Amino acid sequence: MTPPAEARRVPVVVAGGGPVGMIAAIELGRRGIRCVLLNDRPTTATHPKANAISSRTMEHLRRLGLARAVRARGLDDDHPTDLAYFTRLNGYEIGRYRQPSRREALAEAAAGTGRWASAEPPHRCSQLFLEAELKKAVDALPAVEVRFGWRLEEFRDCGDRVEALARRSDGVDEVVYEAGYLIGCDGAGSGVRAALGIELAGESGIIRPIMGGPMYATYFEAGRRAGWLAQDPAWQYWVLNPEIRALFIPVDGGDKFLFIAALGTGDGGMSEPAAMIPRAAGVDFPLRIISAQNWTAGYALVAERYRLGRFFLAGDAAHLFTPTGGMGMNTGIDDAVNLGWKLAAQIAGWGGPALLDSYEAERRPIGRRNTAFASRFADSIGHMPIGAAIEEDSAAGRAARAALRSLVEGHAHFEFTIPGIFLGLSYAGSPIVADDGSSPPPDDPNAYTPNACPGARAPHAWLAHAALHDVLGPEFTLLRFGGAPDPAPLLAAAEARGLPLAVVAVEDPAGRDIYGADLVLIRPDHHVAWRGNRLPRDCRALVDLARGAGQTQTTT
Length: 556
Known about the structure:
Elements: E1 8-15, H1 19-29, E2 35-39, H2 55-63, H3 67-71, E3 83-86, E4 93-97, H4 102-111, H5 127-139, E5 144-148, E6 150-157, E7 162-168, E8 174-184, H6 191-196, E9 200-203, E10 213-221, E11 236-240, E12 245-250, E13 256-262, H7 276-281, E14 288-297, E15 300-303, E16 307-308, E17 311-313, E18 319-321, H8 328-348, H9 357-382, H10 395-416, H11 419-423, E19 476-481, H12 488-497, E20 501-506, H13 509-515, E21 519-522, E22 528-532, H14 539-546
Parallel strand pairs: 1-2, 1-8, 2-5, 3-11, 8-17, 19-20
Antiparallel strand pairs: 3-4, 6-7, 7-8, 9-15, 10-13, 10-14, 11-12, 12-13, 15-18, 16-17, 19-21, 21-22
Helix pairs in contact: 1-5, 1-8, 8-9, 9-10, 12-14
């Protein structure tokens, strides 16, 4: 590929304009780092995929000023987010796992009484609406050149730069970019990953009655007044019987729904999968198909490398999930946040030579952890035993439904009350985290113990007028609790290295108890880099460690 004389120069090319690519572009663009965002589709998503935004992702959106706009999308304020299980929609309700509506969840978070130790509980919202809000945000950033309807055609490593050829999807026009770095956020079939020769490792081809093997998803419109959905409102309506295992998800709180089932089940089978919808409902009703996609579940794969020189992988390009627990998109967004601040630091000049390597060191273990958890959730629902008499109005039927009720309600807690996964993730052992000898709590998906062990997500606390996360600076922040020593030496060391550092004094004994030290250094992605009751003897060494220019050390 020979670039024309007037090839465009830009620090970063982001290939892929889904949620992960747009978050990466926002993280760069809000810091004034110029980048180009390429997306082969002309618009944001039109077919719903992910339907759950995690508490951790909502914290990132809050930091970016987008949480309120995203919260306004999706289901109505008072719509319950229950998990409900039926023999068929017009049959028996087997069990129900109660979850709060949006209004109730926010009230619980404000009162500190909810299941999630965060100012931002999870949000049940389709990727359709999340992408629309992210697109507005990325379009508003002058540093980001947004090219929807353009694809990354080819690229090469030129040693001191990357050359990338972008071509408009209709083939009419093309541009060559000379960039410092390229991020592949281009999905499960990533062309970037393939061109780099990076393999995926893990499990694939797992077959389950549902969430393993060929799957079918259709986006359809049907009026509730047709009588097909007379059940109490829920966020997920599961259908479990010997013939069909399927899922209905309301997309907008109105007349639009997503239906998911395993292909080859039900009378429709492979030839007419849409016929499974009335079979799962248990009644014929008028509906309009908006879009449909076939896909394959049963993956737990992670790229063997997340970085190769000037090239990076993030999101589905780096890891493939079976979509249980709502973990794929949310793990990818965390990838983009982690990489975004590090690339910006490198380009701005204050990032050290090891900073970009820490992306793989921190995020690849999380990819392996999260795909493993998702597989456990898929096994739990996918292999759930269903009695042959489950639909009968008989003693045997009642017994079968009672037995299944305890299983589905236990499973719902196992899969959907998972603060440990999203809030308990830790980068302990990272080369840019200062070990203080403490041990983080056990990694339990269903339980989160707030802690500030170095590497942990900075725990949430309510202050007098704000959430603690809201008072953190845009880059590094030193929290100074109570009578902590004067941080002037650390500020001077940060200034000498160009590391942006804000100091926030917190007069809150409860916060001090959670953080476990008088001084805590918080990274731009709100993870703990260091903590101590006094400054280290060598503040420059700590600054160098945090910016990827020093040796891993323990605190003094």
